[in-house]
Specification:
Layout lengths: L7 H7 L13 E2 L5 H10 L5 H11 L14 H10 E2 L4 E7 L5 E6 L5 E9 L4 E5 L3 E2 L17 E2 L2 H19 L5 E4 L9 H12 L11 E5 L3 H9 L5 E5 L5 H7 L8 H15 L3 E7 L7 H10 L6 E6 L13 H13 L3 E5 L18
Parallel strand pairs: 1-2, 6-9, 9-10, 10-11, 11-12, 12-13, 13-14
Antiparallel strand pairs: 3-4, 4-5, 5-6, 7-8
Amino acid sequence: MAIKPLNYAAAYFQFPYLCTMEQVSSKKDIRLVSKLDLENLFLGMGEKKFRAKQVYEWLWQKGAHTFEEMTNLSKSLRETLMENFVIRPIQADKVQKSLDGTIKSRFRLHDGHLIEAVLIPVPHDKRFTVCVSSQVGCSLSCTFCATGRMKRVRNLDPAEIYDQVLLVNRQALEYFDHPLTNIVFMGMGEPLLAYKNVMQSIDYITSPLGMNMSPKRITVSTAGIGKMIMKLAEDKVRFNLALSLHAADDTKRNEIMPINEQNNLAVLMEALTHFYKTTHNRISYEYICFQNFNDSLEDAKQLAKLCRQFPVKVNIIEYNPIDNAPFLKSADQNIDNFAKYLRDQKIMVTVRRSRGKDIDAACGQLANKD
């Protein structure tokens, strides 16, 4: 049966949600087309609907970055797809390997912008985590963060987030002979300000037609946007949630995280309580200790109060200093005393020692380099 060529001008009128008139003469990234819309397009080409499932699996399960790889499609169909669509994968631009095994990658996007992803291996626990970005830059301006010095350019599309996981998984297999076990959205950007694209990328990662990873192995970290945490609850997400807390009182948090002025701790506690009661998913607090700022026993006591409202795990993080920031890493003894106080209060605590000290480990450092 002859394959009907795909006419984008006709597609505009038949499927106006797929393309604008400006896109009629240009090729659309096929990874921005839903499975349902692919089915409709294939039917319009005189093809069977199941071809959409085949293409979908090539894109999201096998990670195909070219149409030539789709070998269970006929050559003529692949040529038709190439004539009408493109695939725009992210490209490795620079890779740094730390002596502790951490691998930081800078990726170049199709429009030239740069983002970061980090492989954090813990081989003795068989835990291999990728930290992914959700935006180019960030609008939140946290004073301790290199990404906060960058303006927010745009949200990453779902495929650009997916590609970070795909390519870093290949790194894990190459260097450690082990696939990724966990994904954390703790890289560049605020995931809840790229809500739709982050949710879609997680769908691709967790779908049986995609990577088929358990959502329980995914954690989305937010600087704290109350209404969007409420939306996570209403959407009944199945992944874990982390709050980048870093201070347990509003005065200090306002100083280092301007977002707190519109989303203070009372607002966040209300939203997180609703999230936990609705989803029963795990919540954690990320808490970077800064020397002589938030690492005293009084700070620990205030944090302990926040931990009594719902079950929560505290991840205490050593700071990776950045240029021209007013903060230093807390002394090891201060961190240990801080953690001990919380444990004595029956609070679950993990101390994350700094990784990648010999490379540009802090979020945004590598992307900011020439």
